[in-house]
Amino acid sequence: MEYVIEMLNIRKEFPGIVANNNINLQVKKGEIHALLGENGAGKSTLMNVLFGLYQPEKGEIKVNGKAVNITNPNIANDLGIGMVHQHFMLIDKFTVTENIILGKEITSGGKIDMKKAENEVREISKRYGLSVDPQAKISDISVGMQQRVEILKTLYRGAEILIFDEPTAVLTPQEINELIQIMKTLIKEGKSIILITHKLKEIMEVCDQVTVIRKGEGIGTLNVKDTNPNELASLMVGREVTFKTTKKEANPKDKVLEINDLLVKDSRGIDAVKHLNLEIRQGEIVGIAGVDGNGQTELIEAITGLRKTAGGSIKLNGKEIGNLVTRKVTEAGVGHIPQDRHKHGLVLDFSIGENMVLQTYYQKPYSKYGVMNDKEIFVKAKSLIKEFDVRTPSEYTLARSLSGGNQQKAIIGREVDRNPDLLIAAQPTRGLDVGAIEFIHKRLIDQRDQGKAVLLLSFELEEIMNVSDRIAVIYEGEIIAIVDPKETTEQELGLLMAGSIEKKAGGMN
Ligand SMILES: Nc1ncnc2c1ncn2[C@@H]1O[C@H](COP(=O)(O)OP(=O)(O)OP(=O)(O)O)[C@@H](O)[C@H]1O
Ligand SMILES: [Mg+2]
Asked: Where would I find the ABC transporter domain in this sequence (predicted)?
């Protein structure tokens, strides 16, 4: 059998950690090969080695049977290897076309021929079904389109082997379906794909083979046809995973959050949240279900002080918090696990320990008389790292060098530990492995059982259905229905979210 890629006995170390130990990965031409493993198992590292971003300490890489030495990404490109990273690497102020041709500009008479470049971009985008607007600025387009730009960038450079590092973690269900179609088209055109994903359903649906790694060690490669989600989960985690969250009946008490007639405008000044009413009580989890772009982001930004409201009120424990600055909202008792962990969740160039006290560093015991007390900060950090299973060499490691999922676990740990009266969890399990998801769901339910109010925002209907006590469906900036997860189906929820069926927003109290 001919392999397009062979990575043999790869070893890659970082200070204090062996990220890859003797790992083997063999990818056949024309297949989609999944790479599966827990958060921090070493998947991104292995792919960064293949893409020339890291040099392995040991091992051999062959491309189309020939041994190669990939010392930088340009060499990877020349060998036909392209990578779409876990965190995108686009330049916000540049257009789609400028980003795609960056470093490969076509010039005539010393000038960049933008028209020609745009036409080329149009051509490849049509061929692979990757719809983009060549003239749009990156900062103005959706995450899904940004990802298509990243894919086009690799194709523009002639990639034959594409590495996708968790491409679906940042996408909505609709965008995931589109990406799956795109991957199928790429395979038809003779490309090969290495796909990193935590979603076992996606592996079962589109992949041919799957290689499992655990804690930096290769566990083996299986034919997808011959395996199932349960087996894959236990191979990667090293124990059985239940998938289903168990919880007792909710016992809601006093109102914690009370939103009345709320108006919020989006960044373009258009009404995003329109006369919205919602309340959450102590001891319940309310899930927000909706198609992306129906006001959920603006709603959360308004509650957390990241966005001004244009009318109405937001009360926490009876006190108005609308239009307070974020620090005041936090002090009033709101915790926030943000959707975008890099923008609002972490300071990447701070240590993971410092990140654990981002909102509390100026309070006792972390500061005294205006002087920070490192000892207290790092003792706290150490215990959170242990409790939330954040895999890091130490509490002094920079947040930037943690794996994506472990960055996420650190944020969750910090927010849950502050024990806020209202915990807002926006896509809390994005990028987490199945074991970590199980753990986080339990923690959200624990918060509820301790009498806290939890607001859960997720695009994963399964998560909304499993974790919430009540589901509020948001459509065009309004809550159009409140449903009981025990009395609804994913289908019905889907129709409500699409605005296709109406249900009176009853049961608000
Ligand atoms: N640049 C770096 N410097 C130091 N340590 C690193 C660096 N990159 C990764 N690591 C460490 O190597 C290990 C593997 O990380 P990697 O990012 O490969 O995990 P992953 O399998 O992609 O996880 P996730 O599913 O969370 O993205 C982790 O312990 C991580 O902290
Ligand atoms: Mg990763």
From this structure: 5-240, 257-501
- Cα of 286 vs centre of ligand 2, distance in Å, is 30
Confidence of residue 1 (pLDDT cuts 50, 70, 90): low
| Ligand 1 near 40 CB (within 6 A) | yes
Tokens of 22: 């003797």
Cis omega (within 30 of 0) for bond into 56: no
Q: How far is the CA of 126 from the centre of ligand 2 (A)?
A: 30
Say if ligand 1 is within 6 A of residue 402 CB.
Answer: yes
| Residue-wise pLDDT tens digits, 138-170 | 988 888 889 999 999 999 999 999 999 999 988
Residues with CB under 5 A from ligand 2 (ion): 44, 86, 403-404
Distance 17 CA to ligand 1 centre (A): 9
Distances (CA, A) of 209 to 57, 183, 224, 227, 336: 27, 15, 5, 10, 38
Q: Retrieve residue 393's tokens.
A: 């060499």
Question: 233 Cβ partners below 8 Å, 6+ apart?
Answer: 200, 240, 241, 243, 434, 435
What is the per-residue pLDDT for 507?
43
- For ligand 1, say whether the CB of 138 is within 6 Å of any of its atoms: no
Which ligand number lies closest to the CA of residue 45? 1
Picking from 55, 13, 5, 21, the residue whose alpha carbon sits closest to that of residue 163 is 5
Among 69-78, 334-343, 346-355, the range with the most confident prediction by mean pLDDT is 69-78
CA of 5 to the centre of ligand 1 (A): 22
pLDDT digits (tens, 9 = 90+) for 174-212: 889 989 999 999 999 999 999 999 999 999 999 999 999
- In terms of DSSP bridges, do strands 319-320 and 66-68 run parallel, antiparallel, or are they unpaired? unpaired
Q: Are 417 and 450 in contact, with CB atoms under 8 Å apart?
A: no
Q: Name residue 257's beta-bridge partners.
A: 280, 316
Average pLDDT, the chain: 92
pTM exceeds 0.85 = yes
Amino acid of residue 214: R
What is the number of the ligand closest to the CA of 41?
Answer: 1
Distance from the CA of 195 to the center of ligand 2, in angstroms? 11
Domains and CATH numbers, the chain: 3-237 (3.40.50.300), 243-333+422-509 (3.40.50.300), 345-419 (no CATH)
pLDDT tens digits, one per residue of 434-465 = 988 998 999 999 999 999 999 999 998 999 99
Average pLDDT of the residues in 402-431: 93
DSSP 226: G
